[in-house]
Amino acid sequence: MDSSPDEAAAEEPGRHHMDDEDFKTLLDATQTVAVVGLSTHPEKPSVEVAKILLAAGYDVIPVHPTATEILGRKAYATLADIPVPVDVVDVFRPSGEAPEIARQAVEIGAGTLWLQLGLTSGEARDTAEAAGLRYVEDICIGATTLRLGNTARDAR
Length: 156
Prior knowledge:
Order of helices and strands: HHEHEEEEHEHEH
Oligomer: single chain
């Protein structure tokens, strides 16, 4: 028996079907967040989000092609260079780069691919979900962390 379109949509993972309880559970289980595109310019939104995550106790790992350190944290040129497991890959790069970042997130065994507010990518979604990663798009992880009161300490 075929499922109705409503039933199929209800089973589709992704940000459109995650409620606050889902986000809280995801963030509570997170300790390490790799921020792809974390800027070296302090006025940029990526820096503000990273500061929110750091204040909440998350281990923030900057991913930047040329920086060696951002916010006092060692930066890595690529996700593959990170020597520790990554729970969430948070993306501050143009949507057109998201599919390749999704492939890299799969390769390192990340648990979640999170595209920041304003970013969407069907190809990145397909890549992430086919490999079993959770996928979030067009939502700010910093604002969500603040709104729900999550901390990395909840995961310990």
